[in-house]
Amino acid sequence: MPTGPLTLADIGSLNKDKGCDVCGEKAFKNCASCGIALYCGKPCQEQAWPSHKRQCKALSSGVWTTVKFQPLLDAMPFMAGMHSVNLNRYTRTDEVKSGSGGRTKETRNPPPNDHGTKPFIIKIQTTQASIRVYDRRRTLDLYLMSKNDPVNFRRLHEAAGTGFKGMKCYRWAKRVSDWELSICLDIKLPEDPKW
């Protein structure tokens, strides 16, 4: 275990298996309807149902849109060899000073599928020309340019417009293939997660 304060990347890597949504014990089953909630057994599932029911029904009936993304260097070739740092309101200053951002990942290999077929939360960030989508652990970091898919770009851009400063939002997604995600664009999370 780390001895100092944890970064959000540390927290993301340490909580891959968060356990039962009710008691925190090892989870053995997902909600059969939405696949998102995790439970150790039937008693916890029944206890959680009154609070989970609304979100479950919304996600089960939500509109899921499949979007094909690209690796960074295909979307923005000018980034080759450049340094980049991910900053947000939770970024510690010592992370930035240490240069932990490093060089842009110069790979065109698909990101690992850490989530399998289970739904997970993604962050959608937008500019006028590009959209970046990534998971909390940043094992998945994908891009979409407006010129490559104007219809889905507009959909993602509109969803991001409903979030923080009209530039980012969080949604549920499922991995469809190496470069495709199915995203539930019409259902907002009850609250923004700490990212």
TrEMBL record:
Keyword Transmembrane helix applies: no
Compositionally biased residues, Basic and acidic residues: 91-108
InterPro entries, per the entry: Znf_MYND
GO MF annotations in UniProt: zinc ion binding
Superkingdom field: Eukaryota
UniProtKB keywords: Metal-binding, Zinc, Zinc-finger
Coiled coil spans: none
Domain MYND-type residues, every copy: 20-56
Name by which UniProt lists this protein: MYND-type domain-containing protein
Region Disordered, annotated ranges: 91-118
Keyword Iron-sulfur: no
Source organism: Sistotremastrum niveocremeum HHB9708
